[in-house]
Structures are given as C-alpha cells and as structure tokens.
Amino acid sequence: MRNAAAPVPLSTSGTTPADVVAVARHGARVELTESARAAMAAARRVVDDLAARPEPVYGVSTGFGALAVRHIDADLRARLQRNIVRSHAAGMGPRVEREVVRALMFLRLRTVASGHTGVRPEVAETMAAVLNAGITPVVHEHGSLGCSGDLAPLAHCALTLLGEGEAEGPDGVLAPAGELLARHGIAPVELREKEGLALLNGTDGMLGMLLLAGADLARILTAADVTAALTLEALLGTDRVLAPELQAVRPHPGQAASADNMLRVLAGSGLTGHHQDEAPRVQDAYSVRCAPQVAGAGRDTLAHAMAVAERELAAAVDNPVVIGDRVESNGNFHGAPLGYVLDFLAIAVADLASIAERRTDRLLDRNRSHGLPPFLAADPGVDSGLMIAQYTQAALVSELKRLAAPASVDSIPSSAMQEDHVSMGWSAARKLRTALDGLTRVVAVELCAATRALELRAPLAERGLLPGPAGRAVLAAARAAGVAGAGEDRFLAPDLAAAEEFVRSGGLVAAAESVTGPLA
Hints:
Keywords: Cytoplasm, Histidine metabolism, Lyase. The protein has 520 residues and is mostly helical. It has helices spanning 17-26, 34-51, 77-88, 98-112, 121-132, 151-161, 177-183, 195-198, 204-234, 244-248, 253-266, 286-289, 291-313, 336-364, 387-403, 425-456, 469-480, 493-504, 507-516, and strands at 8-10, 30-32, 92-95, 136-137, 140-142, 166-168, 174-176, 321-323, 326-328. It folds into 2 domains: 8-202, Orthogonal Bundle (Fumarase C, Chain B, domain 1), CATH 1.10.275; 209-410 and 421-516, Fumarase/aspartase (Central domain) (Fumarase C, Chain A, domain 2, Up-down Bundle). Helix content is 53%, strand content 5%. The model has no long low-confidence stretch (mean pLDDT 95).
C-alpha cells in the first residue's frame, strides 16, 4: 500500500490501484504534475480552435444526447455547460459512501489530467483542491445506468465545483457547497465549452468501486483460507489434499495459493490426519476437501477483474475525446467491461460464502463433526450453542445468492432511444459492495465455530494432539478481540460482532501470519 502521507502525482503516465485506494480510503493528497498541465493546455487549445469554427462539434457547440442536433451559439455555451451539470445532478436515494465519492472524484480528475478531455488546467486544479480539502459532494445511490458514464453521480461532484448543492466537510458535517469552498479558499469554477460534459462522461464510479472491492476481497480471500484450515483441523481432516504436487496437476494459480495458505496454517498440527480414528472416512467432504479449488477460483476471478481495472486505469474515458488536433465522438464510456467483472466477482463471493456455510454446518452437526457435541453446545438441550449463528449465516448466504444475479444483463433504453443499450455497471458495483459485507460476516461465523470446535477438542490434548501453532495463535487473538469461546449459552450477537470486526480489520490474518509469515 502506498504511504498515504505521500501525495499521489497525476500525470499522463497512468495511476495505480494503490493510488486510488490511498486517496479514496486513506485521504492521500493529490497533485498535478507539469506534464499533466502541459497536456491539458494543449488539448484545450484544440477545443478553443474548434469552438471558434462555424461547424458544429458535439459537446463543444451542440446539445447533448438526443438533443445533439441543435447547434448552440457562442453566447449560450457557458450556460449550456452549467446547465448540463445542474440537470444531470438528478440522483435519488441514500448517500453514497465517502470513500466511493472520493474515488469517483479522483478518477475523473485522472482522466481530465490525461490531456484527452479539453478541460482547462485551472478546472483540474480546483478538482484537486476540493479533494485535498476533504470536501465530499453528496452523491446519491440511484442515477447511473453505467453508460454515457456515471452521469448523475459525477454531476453531483461537478455541482460542488460550481459552488452549488450540498457537500460534506472534512469534519463530517453537511453544508452548502459554496460555503465549504469559501471556507477553504477555493473559488467556484466557470465552465467553458465541453467542460461540463467532460466532468460527467466517465466510468469512474464503477471503476472506483471495483478497485475498492478488489482490495477488500483480496483480504477476505486470505481470511477465508485461514478459517477453512481451522475447520479442517477441528474436523480432524487430512491436509494431504493440499500437497503442492496435487495442485500442480491442475495448475490454476489461485488454487495453488489457497492450498499453500491452508498448508501453512496447518503446519505442526497434531489434529490433522486423524480422520480415520473415531469415525473412519476415506475422504473429507467436498466443503473441506475442495476449499482451495473454490477459493482459488475466486482468486483467479479477482485477478481477471483487476486486470480489467488496470486497463481502465490506463484509459481516458470521455466523449468526445481530444485526439491530436481533432475531437472525435466514441463509445468508450460504455461500462460493459467493468459491469461484467463486477458481476463475476459477486458470483465468486456468493459461492465462497456458500462453501464456508457448509463447513460451519458440518462443525455443528454431531453426525458429521466426528466427536464434537451438537451445535458445539456446553450442555446440548439446555444450551443451543451456535445453532442460530448458523441460521444467521445461512440467511446471509441466501442474500448473497440473490445479489449474484447479474446486473449487466439488463438494459433500459434512455435519452429518447439515442442511448439504447446501457451497462448497469453502477448497479453491479453497488450490489458487490453489499455482498462483500455479507461475505465478511459469513467468514466471521465460521471463525466462531471453528475456534470453538478447536477448544472442544481439548480432551485430545491428553494424547498430545494439539492444534498447530497458527491455530493456537488465531484462537488466542480471537479471544483477546472479544470473540468468546466454548461455554454456556450467552447473548451471542456481541460475539458475532467482535468476530466480524476481527475479520474486517485484518486481525484474523495478522494472527495467523504471526506464525506463518505473509500469506497470499
């Protein structure tokens, strides 16, 4: 991760995913390089030259969308650019999270700084100043079809540059945008030809949420490998299926990485390999044996999604776009590449949650847990143990399956049939964020069950059969984090909340890595 204290430079040479996360989530400052200023100035000269000609040029001297047939006189063009921002700031519903809005703003600034939009350098400087001041426009949940860019969300951001609408200050308090700009010594911008359109016409919301989701899912995948290993250990399963030579005969890189993580967590365990002691079985169940295959497929899906995201980071998404000494219309604002991978990730998230829930249920079922008490209860019948925690987990998995239904297969024509096929990529991104929260909770429930089950294997310690060092480290860290262990029934929601935070904050992975070293 980039040091958030170091400014993120914006040039014509591209941006990294770590840059986006640093600005969006950690408040890193941004700064425009001289090369970016020079590229913007050169592109602006092209726009100014075209604006002076009598021939209509889309976005410069015409209306927009289905209204592009009207030529706009020079004395109305400032009003045209201001009006597109005001009219397109038509979002509804709950506010979008601060980190998403900051990603949206930063990515639009990145495209502006590429020198392909024709926006003046002073407008870009204002965009950077707003970000650096910690001013966050109010953006609403609904308003983007993921085509012609994330129009309404970006319009709400552009409205703040005009000193209009509402925004949140660095103190988290909502105020009129004009007041916040004045408080930080930022002058509102006066838009000229093409600039209003250029501030709206990008895939920045979809891309920002994809990059944030990628960072989150990478951490959850590692956490899921850890909990899968703990469950295998608690079920006295065999780790032989994780051997590198078995992964090599089916060389998916994600599978190999997950199997290696699990092997390292299980290193030194006295519990693995005893699957034939009490209730003999030749093989572990699929949810245990195939854990690296499922999590590994999720890893490979994430790798593909991040490859798409990095290509988009290298792009200048606008319409029309400045190419050399001309301005050309194009369709690069269509969100299909991002919509598809956002939906792919939601499918992977749902399936990873599904297999984790099946492992949890196996730990709780006395007929399949190989000697553990029903529902991991202290006094079954008097105590219910984790029975209803699994209900909660199952409800989450069911919701994740609904969220896996792809948004990108839908399309609703707009703009009087001029924009007759849209991506719905923004919707795909919004539901993926919800899905990641659900997956975190599902992994947290498995953690509660697996650690409690390991504690209940204490009688085996008399035979020298102990969890491995990594398992013991996770168990101790979880208890220190407020995830209570085996015992009589108690108010369970605080335990689950503590487990969720332990997973979300990275505490689970950190505890395992204190023994294993860095995991993939």
